[in-house]
């Protein structure tokens, strides 16, 4: 089973930069998108009839938003955390027979860290939510989580220490999440792989020189680790300041851990 997650930084703009072509070529069973930046009716994507679309729009126009395109029909869909709605459109949860899929766009602490307290409180609620799901069945989490967890996850760790996305507090929240029973799939498979990033500033030559951050993730419940086949990123795919991240997982092992 192939899953893809991509912060498109405005889906309408990304469509004009090759989104549809990549979508078709990827052949993903589930394709998750963050930061759609649109409202209902502002875009029409002509896709293979095998996909069903689910959207969580932000109330604020041109802001945030998530979407999931899936070939697999979910048992249920939930929009938000505690309630079946949240104003920034940051979370979509799809329940399947053998697992939950959570597509998330984590709040940014902002450059001046003015939203750090909000971010940290949100992280606590998000972690509790994932633990509740995990108690029922395994969880696959994907999206822009707006944090480089370890120094290996960004190019200039020393210069960025304490900056938004690399504060001690944000990194500690990721550590706490993993410690509750989740696995960072890329680091699980490639613990020492450096220079592997998913986001680059729009400043000149930054992406060409690969001065980036790894802030987009696939996490899974720890008991799904044996089912992992591969995890990575399509760094050459343009259209956004983020690149798509990819997960290949053995669906049979999700459904039956004893399967060979």
TrEMBL record:
Gene3D superfamilies: Endonuclease/exonuclease/phosphatase (3.60.10.10). Transmembrane segments: none annotated. Coiled coil: none annotated. The keyword Metal-binding applies. Its cofactor is Mn(2+); Mg(2+). It is an enzyme of class 3 (hydrolase). GO terms for molecular function: double-stranded DNA 3'-5' DNA exonuclease activity. Pfam families: Exo_endo_phos. This is Exodeoxyribonuclease III. PANTHER family: AP ENDONUCLEASE, DNA-(APURINIC OR APYRIMIDINIC SITE) ENDONUCLEASE. Keywords: Hydrolase, Magnesium, Metal-binding. Belongs to the DNA repair enzymes AP/ExoA family. Residues 4-242 form the Endonuclease/exonuclease/phosphatase domain.
